[in-house]
Structure formats: structure tokens, C-alpha cells
Amino acid sequence: MPYTRRTVLLALFAALAALAALLLSDVLGTVVFATTVAYLLVPAYRRVRERDVPAWWAAAATTSAAALGVLVPIAAFTYLLYIRSSGVLAFVQSLPSRFVLQLGTFSYTVDVSTLTTALTGTLRTLAVTAVSALPVLGVKFTLFAILVFALLIAHEEAEAAVLAAVPLRYHDIVQALAERARDTLYAIYVLQAATALATFVVAAPVFWILGYPYPVTIALLCGVLQFLPIVGPSVVVGALALYQLSVGNVPAAVLVLVVAGFLVAWLPDPLVRPRLSRRTARLPGSLYFIGFTGGLLTVGVIGIIAGPLVVALLVEAITLLAEEERKTRA
User: Fold this and answer.
1) Would you say the pTM of this structure is higher than 0.85?
2) CA 184 to CA 308: how far, in whole Å?
């Protein structure tokens, strides 16, 4: 059976895409990140265009806003870690080598000296790695901005090219997958970012009132951990409670568990999500966690985005298949 011209072009596209992924593997994560951000920013770009702003300036304004949204939190977190690095190291080194957990007549001795030594070495390694990676990060950030700008300007042509490669009777499937992808990216970027910001705003005064050193740094860490599904800022709250137990301050441990556990680890979710949940991923937390951890362990940091996105698209494909089966039976 002779191959059609369309089949040959699709095979050529698949082969070249695989070759590009192989040759550009070092920047593949940046490309994926920029593509997902640009896809999510298309509605904002269109709103700017509706104000009779030329396409070039509309894309430049939207890209600048996205770049600032990415750069400012990362820069703030890096700066705070840098200026607090000596204090964090001193705090870790001041922890007792062992502490006793005692509940009534039961007591258990925990040896943390090995963990403290490993944590100190990890912090120093991270500091050196972060400094040495700054030039590469600068290049990748520039690439990110250029890609977002280019994709915003050419998004209509890209969408038309994708639809042209798909037979007309399958366009509804493409549309359903596109809507699921947009909802998932909205949940990952917008919803998580808003929740992280609310966590930071709530956590800073809470930890300051509770008397912890570096409340802004701890609050920023809690905000970043909001992107970690299920556990989130509760990791920080639990670590602070364990520290208070290690020095024998049981009331302070209970206080941080109750107050920070409620206001920092739990409250931001019900405070923010109902107001921004008109468009969500419609993805259970367990599946989101599987996509997050699986993607992170398989392809690195970019898996935080790619993992949940792939899981969401798989769920949508299963849903479409089930609907098609019901129509066939009917």
C-alpha cells in the first residue's frame, strides 16, 4: 500500500522531533517550561491585543510580566538563602547530637548527629552549586523569554498547523485534550502560585509572633513548599515542632503544631482555592501526587509540570474512550 504524502510528512515530523529532543536535551526542560507558560498566557495576550496594542508590543508586555513572575520569587528566595546561609548553618550545627522523646513513662533517644552532618554538607554543596550554575541559568532564562515571546506571536499559526495535521473528525478530541491541558497548567501555575503567595503572607507574621528567627525566610520556604502536593508547608511545621521537642520545649512544640499547622499548613488552601477553582485540573490529589513525584524522579525538575500534565491528559483520554464506548453501546 503506497504511503500518502500526509503520512510521510507526519513520519518526518516525528523523526525530526525525536532528533531535536536528543540534540537539545540540555535545554529541553526550558523549552517545555516556556511552551506551557506561553500556552497559558495566550488569553492574557489576546486581552492586551483587544486594546489595539500591536502584536509585537503585546507579546513583549505579556512576556515581561511572565518573566518577572518567574524571576522575582526565585531571586528573592535565592537572596534570602544567601544572606541567611551562615545563620542556617549555625542553627543546624547548634542542634544537639541526640534528643529524648518522652511521653509519660515511655522515652526514646533519637541520634541526629549523622543527619546534622549530612545536612550541613548538603547546604554547603547547594550553595556552591547555585553559584556555579548562575551563568547557565542566565542563558536558560534568556532562552525562556525568547521562546515565550515567539510562541505568543505565532500561536495562531502553531494551532492551525496542529489542527491541519489531524483529520476533521478528530478535532473534538484535540479540543478536549487542549482544554484539559490548559486547566491542568492553570492549576499548576496560577492556583499553586496564588496559594503559595497567601501562605507566605500568612506565615511571615505567624512565625514572627511565635518568636522564630528568620520568619521571612521560613515563610518563603513554606510558600515554595506549597508546590509540593499533599505534604506542603507541613514539612516545615513538623521540623520546627521536632526541634522544640529536641530541646525539651514541649509547649512550644504543641503551639507551633496547632497555630502554624492551622494558619500556615491548612488555611491558605481553603482560603484561596474556592475563589480560583472555576478552572481546575479536575484531577484527584492522589493522581496529581503520582504525576508530580513520578515526573520529578524521571525527568528532573521539569517533571513537576510534565508529570501532572501527562497524568491529566491520560485521564482525559480514558474519559473520552469511556464516552465513546457508551455511545457505541447506545
Assistant:
1) no
2) 8
